[in-house]
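Marked as duplicate of an earlier ticket. Keeping the data here for the record.
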Amino acid sequence: MSDYAPIILFCYKRLASTIQTINSLKNNELAKDSVLYIFSDGPKNKEDERDIFEIRRYLKTITEFKEIIISESKENIGLSNSIINGVSKIIDEYGKVIVMEDDLITSKNFLSFINQALIHYKDNSKVFSISGFTVNVNGLDTNDIYFTLRGSSWGWGTWKDRWDNVDWEVKDYDVFVKDKKARRAFNQMGTDMTSMLNKQMRGQINSWAIRWCYHQFKNSLFTVYPAKSKIDNIGFNRNATHTKGKFNRFKTELDNNSLINTDFNFSDNLSLNDKIIKQFTKPFTISERIKYKLLNALPQF
């Protein structure tokens, strides 16, 4: 079995962005050595059926990966359940995974970065996940990395022994919600964290990612981020499922390095750089969230 982690792609009904996602993945030299699993969610209603049909017709034309395995759901189970179920299934077989959604453009060294990091930090149980995405940060060299206590759901990797430990039911939520100090600590990686978890537990949203991040917070685990982003999210539009609006507070500069043998500076000093963390958390601040909410409320021409 190849030492490269399998890629899992979750898609729904956005054909144009799915094609862009696949084409950018193909530009990774490691694509031809990687197994690609695709989970295609089913339609929510009759109106979605045509879009789902077109997506699935396209998926059957994909080439240039080591192997392609497509799973088509007859019913709509939603992104959250798709990811939890799909990742659990594939990670049981391979021990590690790289996870993508259908609105992500990858740099040519995305697969190289994630695979190298998965190998480097495999035996360090304090490293929870690897992120391909980063906001623009200053003060680091291009091939450096940095650590946070918050994972990213935009092009990421992890291992079975980390994934299997997550409590998706958040059984201690009743204790957490009464603990003011814990709620404030959870928000150190973004002022949206506690409010998102509250919405999840009240049934107002259905997010696997906030539960993933809560487990990370409880156990003081680290996510590895690249200094230069390997991911650009193109899903910020009014037709997106979870990201709405033209203006994107997470807009980032994509790494243009195409070399797969890049020597990334993987540090084993698991600590937070205060200057970097300040830049990392800026898009999650209340002021930035209000600013972009207002921008996206303006008429679009």
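See parent ticket for discussion. The chain is about 35% helix and 15% strand.
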